[in-house]
Amino acid sequence: MLLVSEPVLGLDEKAALAAVIESGWVTMGDRVREFEQAFARLHEAEDSIAVSSCTAALHLILHALGIGPGDEVLVPSLTFVATANSVLYVGARPVFVDIESPEIPLMSLDEAEAKCTARTKAVILVHFGGYLADRDSWQSFARTKGLLLIEDAAHAPGLPAAGTFGEAAAFSFYGNKNMTTAEGGAIIARNRSLRETIRRARSHGMTSSTRQRLDSRSPDYDVTILGFNYRMDELRAAVGLAQLKRLTEWNDIRRRLSQHYRQLIAEHCPSVLVPFTDPWPSAHHLMPVILPTAIPRQVVIDWLRKRGIQTTVHYPPVHRLTYYCDLYPDSYLPRTEEFARRELTLPLHPRMTPATVELVVNSLAAALGAEFPMEAIA
Ligand SMILES: *Cc1c(COP(=O)(O)O)cnc(C)c1O
Fold it and tell me: Ligand 1 within 6 A of 142 CB?
């Protein structure tokens, strides 16, 4: 089966894990620190904070920025549920904003402006599929409205521009992302005192770490703020260090495979829309396509699956999920709903070759060219 995404893990990761086990120090040690510095360097940032997931990263950012009950945060609905959940964790209200268009499925600036109220405190941008939002226009919007700008950069690790938009950015190293530590995440925050608050809140709000107390032989610590346990361990950091060395090369492979997809789809599946344009600053996390309205998507999914090609959908809109429907029954985001109805995500990962892209596009063309008697597929 050709999978939508697949991690690249090998001998380097095995050796890195073995070295941690032999060292006898398994969490929050030198490797976590080394990983934070290496991740920051790749993003041309002063420092970064490694955490247990991107969800934890988003929670820590909102918490450290003091967002809470009574506040509203603008978020896209075309995202993974964690983006909106993090807003609920701090007691604030996520306000869903529609996308711009099927061609540019990023949060619409006009819609964001229309949904601003006196309670709006922040906006979380999602670089959907790795395609960066427009930095200048969002910065000027945030400035004019007095909003905190946060990036959910789960899809864009390795792009130096990701993490430079506003107060802070959250990255994910989950198993299907551009690089992985199995579970894991990181935060880039430009302001030193915000970084210190986040670092402290990552580990229970404590003023020193286990390692620092060991090194200083002083058992003392204090707790100065409400904190969590959102730490990263040495095993994950060691895998992360191995993965970071190849992230730029992998993102480059993703870019070339995406370009190949675009050319072949334009040629062989002219009725299929490929969002965004080439070039576009992107980490090419996903290969989303929009099927023609007349085509039943499930039939295409089944047809491709029969030929060994896995596909998926990004995303079922968050405002349509039962939990969020119950909370906010009046959300209406027609462009997001239309996009999500027609979207199909094709396989894209660095183990693929131009030949696998050709296979996928040929199969998609065949699926679209075929008549669709539902019985024949079943
Ligand atoms: C994967 C993802 C997350 C959550 O990442 P975890 O590391 O699994 O917590 C958040 N936002 C987006 C857009 C994602 O794709």
Answer: no
